[in-house]
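Repro:
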Amino acid sequence: MTRTLTQLELNRAVLARQGLLERFDAPLPGVLERIGGIQAQYAPSMYIGLWSRVNDLERDAVTDGLERRGIVQATLMRSTIHLVSKADYWPLALAIRGARRVSWRRATKSTADMDAAAATAREALRGRHLRRAELEQLVGKEAFHGLGLWLDMVRVPPSGTWERRRADLYGLAEEWVGAPGDAGDAHATLVRRYLQGFGPATRNEIANFAGLRVSDLELDGLDLCRFAAEDGAELLDLPGAPLPGADTPAPPSFLPTWDATLLGHARRALIIREEDRPRIFSSKTPQSFPTFLAGGTVAGTWRFADGEVILDPWRPLPAADLRALEEEGEALARYLGGQ
């Protein structure tokens, strides 16, 4: 008989896999592989998101990891900048490339000669790095918007770091991380990374995370186990992946803007209540807000000002939760201040 997982069990599973029940003691590349990468279109978000997930993380360690090329920034899932391990870059890029090209053509109705644009940009980037404005001037703005689907590029530091936040300096992926290996297990890597970080999950949720259609997913050859959700949906998972009990305590956590645990593909875990979702994701506030968790769910927003982390709770908090959040906030303030 298929085991049915409650919503609270799914909440704790995602928190555990994201290092939000207990921080990871591991090098950054390994952490990024375990959590399915981290969204990074606003550079400070990846620093904050990793601090909340990694024990004793120093801010400079993230920049150092980018400079040493053990971790890489690139436009990947959902056509959004992600921070991933060097080893994961090519599998994730190759798994989504073909479907993203089709989707881009369909959405933009572009007739640009993308093969020619890619060849031009490749030659210009060979052995050097170029800024976005330079690439736009080279191939045209229309072609540039799809260029990363025909030419594999990474964001090169110091751009896209805490120190220089705009990720607008590009380099060839083959020069920055090395030539791609065998693409045969690219889809398997994509699915495994998602389930490691966000499972158990449905096929739709995996596809949503990747920015693919469900029909684009390839699950053949993967050793998966199956559960049921309370609404009857089939949930896929990796054998032996963490499944904490529903009564597992959830410590306070601080999340950055656009943390992936709050996005639509992870909705089932209810880390943000549905009635609270418009507070964070709204056309009136496209920049969104950083949030904090109490008891495993988002309980308000926070900001860093005058050297302090300031809380804006949406509801009254138990005294014990408030004290724990204040202590965690003091540690976060030291990190953000570079102490």
